[in-house]
Amino acid sequence: MGTVKLWHYFKDSRTYRDVIVQLSNKADFSSKTTIYNNDRDNSSGQVAGNDSEYTETSAGRTISLASAIDARYVRLWSNGSNVNGANHYVEVEVSKNINAVAPPVSPDPNPEPAPTGGSSLVSANFDGPDSAFVTSSAFWNNADDGLYQNTDWFAESGSLYRRSNLGYSNSSVFRMWTRQTDLAFTKMEMDVQFNGWAGGTSGWHGINMWLNRKLRTPADGNKINDGSQQEGYAIDFNNRDGKIYIQKKVAGTYYILKQDTWAPVTGKWYHWSGRVIDNGNGTSTIQMLIDGQIIQQAVDNGSVGGPRLTGGRAGLRSDYANYNVDNLLINR
Known about the structure:
Strands 7, 8, 10, 11, 13, 20, 21, 22 and 24 form a nine-stranded antiparallel sheet that branches. A seven-stranded antiparallel sheet has the order 9-12-23-14-17-18-19. It has one helix and 24 strands. A hairpin with a 5-residue loop joins strand 20 (about 270-280) and strand 21 (about 285-290). About 0% of the residues lie in helices and about 45% in strands. The protein is an all-beta fold. It folds into two domains: about 1-100, no CATH class; about 120-330, Exo-inulinase, domain 1 (Jelly Rolls, Sandwich).
C-alpha cells in the first residue's frame, strides 16, 4: 500500500479526535504499522502520536507513504469530534502504488466508484435550540410552502424536530423532501438511531430514504407538480419485517429491485447511505450502504416498471418510527 485517503463528515468543518491509521498483513493486527497518529495523549492506548489534528474538508485526508508497505488490512481509529462523540467515517480509499489514483470500478457487478469527495448539494443542520425543523402544517397552510420555516426542506406529512442538537421524529406518517429538484444521480447519507416503534403493525412500517424522486402533491399536483406521475427509488433500511429493500416506485406501484434480511439494533447509531449511479449505458445502479460498506445493490435497466428514473428530489420517509437523525447530507 502506498496511499490511504479518508473522509469523515465534513459539512461543518469539524475536527475529529485521536485519528489513527494502521496497516497489517494479519487480520488480528498482532503486528502492524502505524502510518498516522494524532492521539497526542495516548488515550486510545496505541502509543502517543506526533501528527497534528486537522479540519475536515470535502477533499478528505491523504496519507502518502515514502515507500510502499506490504499490507492486506487497514484499521482506522478516532474518538469523536469537537461537535459530538460520533466518528462518521464516510469513505476510505486505499491505493496500491505510491501516490496512485484509484481507478473507477466497473459499475457491474461491483459499481463502487473511487470517491471524489464531491461537493455538498443539500444538508440538514440540527444544531441549536429545540424547535421545529419541518412541519407539514407549515407546508400546507402557507403560500410559500413553508419556506419561512426551512429553505432547503419541507414536510409533506408529519414533523421533524431539533432536539438536543439532533433531528427527532415519532410521527405515524412522515415525508420530508428537498426543495431542490435537480438531484438525479446523487448520494444521500445520514446517521440514524432507531429508538422503537410509535404504533402501527404493518411489516413495511419503518424508515427509508428516497432518491430521483418526483412528486405530485396532492394527487392532482396543485401544490407540487414535478411531472405526470409519482416516482422514485426507495431505500428501506429499518423495516418492521426485518428486511431491507431497494424499490422503484412508478405511479402507485412499488417494484422490489432487491431485498435481504437485516435488522438494525435498536438504540445503535448507523451511518446509512443511498446512491444512484449513472452507468453511462442507459442503466443505473442503486446502492444501499451502511458505515461506508455496500450491503446491497440493484441495476435498473428499464425492464421493471418502465424506463430508469432520472428525476428529481431526495427525501426521508418514516412510518410509526421513533428515531434520531444527524449529519444528513446529499452530494455527488
